[in-house]
Specification:
mainly alpha; 2 domains; two-stranded antiparallel sheet; 10 helices; Ribosomal protein L7/L12 C-terminal domain-containing protein
Length: about 190
C-alpha cells in the first residue's frame, strides 16, 4: 500500500501543475486580447441587432436555414447580405439561433418618407382655429386631421416654427406667409 502513495502524490502534483499552467496561459491570453475576451454586447442584443440588418425575405431565408440545421449556409447568407466579416457573421447567426428574433419592419422610417410626398385628402374638411388677443386665424382643409394638426402644434410649441409653417402649407391651401401668421398664434 505504501508503494502506491508516492506515485499518487506525484500524479496529483503533476495535475495541479498542469492546471496552474493552463490558468496562467488563459490569463496571459486574456490580457493580450481584451477585445476578444469581453463581448461587446450580450447575445440577445447581438441577435436583435443582426435581425434588424435583414430584409423580410433575408430574415425568412436565414431562419429557414437555421431550422434545417444548415449553419454554414446561414453564415454564408448573412456574410453575403451584410458584408460583415466571417467571424462577426458566425457570431450573429449563432446568437440568432440561440435567441430567435421576429422580423420587425422599418415602418417609422417609411412614415416619414410618406409625409414628404403628396398629403392624403380626407372626405371631410378640418377646421383649425388659433387666436391671440383680438387676432384670430382659421385654416380649413381636407388634408388636415387631429393627428397632423397635433404634430404641427407640437413643432410650433417646441420652437421649430418654420417646420410647423411648412407642414401647415403642405397640408392646406394657404401660403407660407399665412401659415407663419397662424403658427405665431400657436407659439405660446
Amino acid at each position: 500500500m505504501e508503494s502506491l502513495v508516492v506515485p499518487v502524490l506525484i500524479l496529483l502534483a503533476v495535475v495541479a501543475g498542469v492546471m496552474l499552467a493552463y490558468r496562467a496561459a488563459r490569463r496571459r491570453e486574456a490580457e493580450h486580447a481584451p477585445a476578444q475576451s469581453q463581448p461587446a454586447a450580450t447575445s440577445v442584443e447581438l441577435a436583435r441587432a443582426a435581425a434588424d440588418r435583414l430584409s423580410e425575405d433575408e430574415h425568412r431565408r436565414l431562419y429557414a436555414l437555421i431550422a434545417q440545421g444548415q449553419a454554414m449556409a446561414a453564415i454564408k447568407l448573412y456574410y453575403e447580405v451584410t458584408g460583415e466579416g466571417l467571424r462577426a457573421s458566425r457570431e450573429a447567426v449563432s446568437a440568432m439561433a440561440a435567441h430567435p428574433q421576429p422580423y420587425r419592419s422599418q415602418e417609422p422610417a417609411q412614415a416619414v418618407e410618406e409625409d414628404d410626398e403628396e398629403p392624403q385628402r380626407f372626405p371631410y374638411r378640418y377646421r383649425a382655429i388659433a387666436s391671440k388677443g383680438d387676432v384670430t386665424r382659421e385654416v380649413s382643409s381636407n388634408m388636415l386631421n387631429d393627428e397632423i394638426y397635433g404634430r404641427i402644434r407640437t413643432l410650433a410649441r417646441s420652437g421649430d416654427t418654420e417646420a410647423a409653417a411648412n407642414a401647415l402649407t403642405r397640408h392646406s391651401d394657404i401660403s407660407l406667409k399665412q401659415a407663419r401668421e397662424f403658427i405665431a398664434l400657436l407659439d405660446d
